[in-house]
Amino acid sequence: MAGQGKTVIKVGLSTCGIAAGSTKVYELLEEEVSKNKLDVTVQKTGCIGMCYKEPIIDLVTPDGKLFSYGDVTEENAQRILEEHIKGGKPVEDLLILTERDEVVGRQVRISLKNCGIIDPESLEDYKLAGGYKGIEKCLKEMTPEDVIEEILQSGLRGRGGAGFPTGLKWRFTRGYKSDQKYIICNADEGDPGAFMDRSIIEGDPHAIVEGMMIAGYAIGASQGHVYVRAEYPLAITRLEKAIEDARANGLMGDNIMGSGFNFEMKIKKGAGAFVCGEETALIASLEGERGMPRLKPPFPAEAGLWKKPTSINNVETFANVPWIIANGADKFSAFGTEKSSGTKVFALAGKMKQGGLIEVPMGITLRDVIFGVGGGIRDDKKFKGVQLGGPSGGCIPESLLDTPVDYDSVGQTGAIMGSGGMIVMDETTCMVDMARFFLDFVQNESCGKCVHCRLGTKRMLEILTRITEGKAQPEELDLLEELAYNVKEGSLCGLGQTGPNPVLTTLKYFRDEYEAHIMDRSCPAKVCRELLTFTIDPELCNGCRRCVKRCPTECITGEKKEPHVIDQDKCIKCGNCYDACKFDAVIME
Amino acid sequence: MADAVESPQVDAIPYQEFDKITEKYKGDPSAIIPILQDVQEIMGYVPKNSIGYLAEKLEVSPAKIYGIVTFYAQFRLQPKGKYIIMLCEGTACHVNGAKLISKSITDELEIEGGQTTPDGLFTLEKVACIGCCSLAPVMLINEEVHAKLTPDATRKVLKDYVNKEAAAQN
Ligand SMILES: Cc1cc2nc3c(=O)[nH]c(=O)nc-3n(C[C@H](O)[C@H](O)[C@H](O)COP(=O)(O)O)c2cc1C
Ligand code: FES
User: Fold this and answer.
1) Is B47 in the pocket of ligand 2 (CB under 6 A)?
2) Mean pLDDT (whole number) for A179-194
3) Cβ separation of B71 and A273 shorter than 8 Å?
4) Tens-place pLDDT, residues A43-68
5) C-alpha separations of A113 from A136, A345, A397, A423 in Å
6) What integer pLDDT is reported at residue B10 of this predicted model?
7) Is some CB atom of chain B closer than 8 A to the CB atom of A558?
8) Which of A136, A335, A405, B46 is spaced 20 to 30 A from A427 at the CA atom?
């Protein structure tokens, strides 16, 4: 890539890297390199997916050897500079090569192929990695129908959640006659806990530009819109630059590559509403309205943005497109299963040992994802469940860990594939609390149009809150279930239709936890504080009075340097004493 | 506590700046959201008393603008504090104890989500996932990320900001 023949240092500068401090590392390396006149290029790159090891830097020697370093604080960067770059000796204890091989080596990276490898701000880098070959092939060798046929053959299904075949969507949109059509990239990434779309845009923005151009050519659209979450400023900046660079290099605008095909792109920032990820709500928001979904049909393919035929696809969907065109549909469908071809990116988070982004062929089991690629549960605690599909998805228990990850198998468990957020939970996670958490989210984000979604979710939330507080009656479980089905049936869009899923799946697989909260007034995972009692172990308490100072109800008594006691009648179970105690003397059970 | 939100001060509306913004999007019927984003960018919030003016310029009803402002979580009608604490309450952060972090912020600063401290120093905003899930629980204070928080670490971070401010005053 850029700077061949020299040593190249690539610093992982996506949101996760920056959060871990990689900007300072980047600046320090740049400064040192120029100060010492070292023959080294310092470069930015995206996220390789091993977010738990950030800041990560890759050092590539002139003969192409790769040295990958993790946990690179400024101090460690200095060491690498002195020992490796100047001294020629790799810093063994910071190397993460073996681990990287293990984590990355088990993956099949198609949509993430460039993330963490190329400089996302360099068009040249993208082209060296084979970029814009896909659109070139389309424009020079393929008719729009050929492109659609190729995508259909590949079996690519939408990665935004519902898994609708992308080729089919494009064929429908192409089929409607109109003076103007639109292609929209859905980068609203609403599932709280999924971050693949952000990472792809931050790490490989040109792939989205190219994917959208190919789609535009296929359906006959000369205008593209990207709807990005406002919470993703870095993704927006990088995408803006990619669009500008493409335009400046004749890859966007009129008569691209002399083919007569015109294409322009615009970015619209979202304004913080989960429901705007739903396609009709997204269109309303693009038109400057409140983001409320509307009834389908007509589908956007017929009447979308400004009532014109529109195809909306997800970021990851687009990221697959240039690869499929360049490598052929067969190569793509060789991965995955018959009905779910190709790969899927998952965002592993929660109680994972190795949280981050991974891309695997569909059809491998959840167990392989979590315990193989993801390295298992942190602190070797016991696995309890995994939430797939965010607030619209469901919780899958240990007994179903051998479920293959493909659209249909995941669907059968009651969860959905969704966008690929995977939140892993262990024995210290309370499933009722999780259900409450997701429902709280859905209830907050309901746009209010449908009565069931607006009020039903509110009543469900009230019941769940009562359960977590130990105030619910046994018959309320049935009511909760009934309400859940009513909300699913009585809602117009996917938000309400799927919002009760977390409740229904936890009721199905973890009913005993609900019952413990209701019958025994106890929370087995010790999360719901209202159901816990706080006491002080006189053996461990040394009377430091730290808890006394933090107790809001003054219910802790005892002389200085003598064991203290909590008055259970006055205790409001805020847990301050538990947090304050430095000697583990406060017992929570 | 709710009265901590209302700030007595009403900022003067920089009409010329507003005109520049509306001019930039002239003829684009979909531009209300970006216009409001630009207004919030320069003002820090969307002042209630500016809604009428914008409505007139854009030839829509004030109710429509108000409807949009209240629909989208990004817009605020109250001025914000000097430091915006964006506490992540996304799934990964929740699983890793965001509730306890939220509680320690509320204990320390006596504000809930959406409120500003009376001294105008901090505004607490709760958001869903800022994309650092593997570093959960996380909060952003202005642009700075504070990761892998514990209640104690949170209190310390806040105290550091308060002390820094106090030092700057003297
Ligand atoms: C409540 C709700 C939220 C959604 N959020 C998103 C989202 O954040 N990103 C996304 O790509 N699709 C989201 N979708 C799915 C979109 O409606 C649409 O199906 C998708 O963007 C189509 O792209 P695809 O075919 O490439 O998957 C959401 C759907 C619903 C009902
Ligand atoms: S859930 Fe908090 S950063 Fe993603």
Assistant:
1) no
2) 94
3) yes
4) 999 999 998 899 999 999 999 999 99
5) 19, 11, 31, 23
6) 61
7) no
8) A405
**3-state DSSP helix/strand/coil % of chain A, to nearest 5:** 45, 15, 40
Which 8-state DSSP code applies to residue A365? Answer: B
Which of A406, A361, A405, A316 is closest to A106 using CA atoms?
Answer: A361
pTM for the complete prediction? 0.93
What integer best gives the mean pLDDT of chain B? Answer: 89
CA B88 to ligand 2: nearest atom? 2
How open is the CA angle B91-B96-B102, to the nearest 5 degrees? 85
Tokens in use for A194? 């999924």
Ramachandran class of A86: left when φ > 0, alpha when ψ lies in -120 to 50, beta otherwise: alpha
Chain B residues close to A349, C-beta within 8 Å? 91-92, 95, 133-134, 136
* Backbone conformation region of residue A234, classed left if phi is above 0, alpha if psi is from -120 to 50, else beta: alpha
Sequence spans of domains, chain A: 7-103, 123-333, 343-426, 431-519, 533-588
Place of tokens 């500079």: A81
Pair type for strands A264-269 and A565-566: unpaired
Q: Which ipTM did the prediction report?
A: 0.88
**Which option is the CATH number for A7-103: 3.40.30.10, 3.40.718.10, 1.20.58.100, 3.10.450.50?**
3.40.30.10
Q: Which residue has the higher pLDDT, A574 or A36?
A: A36
Helix (H, G, I), strand (E, B) or coil at A576: helix
Residue-wise burial string across B127-149, b where 16 or more C-beta atoms lie within 10 A, e elsewhere: bbbbbbbbbbbbbbbeeebbbeb
What are the DSSP E strand ranges found in A26-108? 40-45, 57-60, 66-69
Amino acid code (one letter) for A161: G
Q: What is the pLDDT of residues A98-153, one digit of tens each?
A: 889 888 988 999 999 999 999 999 999 999 999 999 999 999 999 999 999 999 99
User: What is the count of residue pairs from A and B with beta carbons less than 8 Å apart?
Assistant: 130
- pLDDT, tens digit, for every residue of A308-351? 999 999 999 999 999 999 999 999 999 999 999 999 999 999 99
* B130 CA from centroid of ligand 2 (Å): 5
Q: Set out the domains of chain B in order of their start, with CATH numbers.
A: 9-71 (1.10.10), 83-169 (3.40.30.10)
For B52-110, the pLDDT digits (tens) are 999 999 999 999 999 999 999 999 998 889 999 999 999 999 999 999 899 999 989 99
Higher pLDDT residue, B12 or A85? A85
Closest residue by Cα to residue A256 from A217, A219, A226: A217
Alpha-carbon distance of A156 to A458, in angstroms, equals: 37
Share the mean pLDDT of chain A. 94
Give the distance (Å) from ligand 2 centre to CA of residue B96: 10
Residue showing tokens 């359960």: A467
Alpha helices per DSSP H over A393-551: 407-412, 431-445, 451, 457-468, 476-489, 494-498, 501-509, 511-519, 546-550
CATH superfamily of A123-333: NADH-ubiquinone oxidoreductase 51kDa subunit (3.40.50.11540)
Determine the residue of chain A that is closest to B90 in CA distance: A192
Range A343-426: architecture per CATH: Roll (3.10)
Q: Is B92 in the pocket of ligand 2 (CB under 6 A)?
A: yes
